[in-house]
Design goal:
Blueprint lengths: L4 H7 L11 H5 L5 E7 L6 H20 L8 E7 L4 H13 L5 E3 L4 H13 L3 E4 L7 E3 L2 E3 L4 H16 L2 E7 L2 H16 L3 E8 L7 H10 L3 E5 L6 H9 L8 E3 L7 H4 L2 H4 L3 E4 L8 H14 L7 H20 L4 H8 L4 E4 L2 E6 L4 E12 L2 E11 L2 H4 L11 E3 L5
Parallel strand pairs: 1-2, 1-3, 3-4, 4-6, 7-8, 7-9, 9-10
Antiparallel strand pairs: 5-16, 11-14, 12-13, 13-14, 14-15
Helix pairs in contact: 3-13, 4-5, 6-7, 13-14
């Protein structure tokens, strides 16, 4: 089926996106495998959510084109949560009670994840969370394919402190992602003989950073590191550049670029920001080139591809590999496959499930924003989620079900 990008995005505006595949065709080979998804296709976080919805569609279509799984087609059931936690709760319940999905790939913020995670755990519905986050979730029912602080924040701090100095000023979103990530930043700074000048937290709707920039000027840190999240917080980067501070104090970020923020800023505003993560469009790996070509053929515009869209795609492909290995959708069979250390090669590199934590070992790239591109400076292969592994051992404690608070 061929649709233009405009037609496709238009079709996503309804609350229930439903299946883009003919149900009759799916039923011809047996009941379809239902793949649930709850993502912000609209609202304040749609810069993250829209490409993730598209990545879900691409992954499902590619699996179906290759014959499906277990001789059955996949049927995506996607809901637009509109950046509203109440809708996350509502649609999570609908996915398990009415739709009776076989797996869920969804959630963007950590707040949204924690609002729905227990719903899927109680229902024994496997849940894949495919977004970078603050670490610590220990639950046998979940698989996390996004990066944690030990994977992506520590490399930033290591490079930034070597390049710029040891006094850091932290800006962070005021919910569990920002609060816990700020603790890890302070920990990595202290480990390297550094100190935190100050930590400021901001609600997701804050867009005026004038007084904060003035405080940073007074503190004179070696560099600033941002763990800000969402569209409103883009204002910080613009105001930082407009004040001329981007020429005086270097800037790093744990989140910048994952929603293609570097494309929204001019080179004069964005150049020099230091980040780390699993994905860059500039990667010359064959798997990435092939992925972008397939994305272009399906949706035309590859500029909107970002790290968590790729992570969503990789998460679905990793789940599909687990289904193939399990030869079944039964929960225990799937858990055995998950805990065998299943691995795939995706656009971001090799993704391997760590049986102990159900998190992924990832190829991590340290990058610098240059001329609206994420230029790769260095890559570490298969960096493990060591922060979560400090607390979580699902092989020893398979009934564990909590998010551990970082204590470092």
């Amino acid at each position: 089926m061929s649709v233009s990008r405009r037609q496709f995005l238009g079709s996503l505006s309804s609350v229930a996106l439903g299946s883009m595949l003919p149900v009759a065709d799916s039923l011809a080979q047996g009941a379809p495998i239902k793949v649930g998804s709850v993502l912000d296709n609209s609202g304040n976080l749609d810069i993250y959510g829209k490409p993730m919805v598209m990545a879900t569609t691409l992954a499902v279509e590619e699996i179906n084109a290759a014959g499906g799984l277990l001789g059955r087609k996949l049927q995506p059931i996607q809901y637009d949560t509109q950046s509203d936690i109440a809708l996350y709760t509502k649609f999570a319940q609908q996915l398990v009670r009415q739709d009776k999905v076989d797996v869920v790939h969804g959630g963007i913020t950590s707040a949204s994840r924690e609002a729905i995670r227990q719903t899927f755990t109680r229902a024994n519905t496997l849940y894949f969370y495919n977004v970078l986050y603050e670490g610590g979730v220990c639950d046998r029912n979940i698989v996390v394919t996004g990066s944690t602080p030990a994977q992506a924040v520590e490399p930033i701090m290591d490079v930034a402190m070597k390049q710029w100095g040891k006094k850091v000023y932290i800006l962070a979103a005021d919910y569990n992602y920002g609060q816990i990530t700020a603790k890890w930043i302070a920990h990595y700074a202290k480990e390297r003989g550094g100190s935190v000048a100050k930590t400021d937290f901001f609600a997701l709707d804050v867009s005026d950073f004038g007084s904060t920039i003035a405080k940073i000027q007074q503190e004179k840190p070696s560099f600033v590191i941002s763990a800000l999240v969402g569209g409103a917080h883009m204002s910080f980067y613009r105001q930082w550049a407009a004040s001329g501070m981007n020429k005086k104090i270097p800037l790093a970020s744990t989140t910048f670029g994952v929603g293609n923020e570097h494309l929204a800023l001019s080179p004069a505003e964005g150049d020099g920001i230091l980040i780390a993560g699993n994905y860059s469009q500039e990667s010359t790996d064959a798997a990435n080139k092939d992925f972008l070509a397939r994305w272009s053929k399906r949706f035309n515009d590859t500029k909107i591809v970002h790290e968590i869209a790729v992570s969503q795609y990789q998460g679905i492909m990793l789940w599909a590999e687990c289904v193939r290995k399990a030869g079944s959708l039964k929960r225990e069979d799937m858990l055995k496959a998950i805990e065998s250390g299943v691995s795939i090669v995706g656009p971001g590199g090799t993704v391997t499930i760590d049986p102990k934590t159900h998190h992924a070992a990832l190829d991590i790239k340290v990058m610098e924003v240059k001329n609206q591109k994420l230029t790769v400076k260095s890559t570490v292969k298969q960096r493990p989620p060591l922060d979560t592994a400090r607390y979580c051992d699902l092989q020893k404690n398979p009934k564990e079900n909590k998010q551990f608070e970082v204590n470092v």
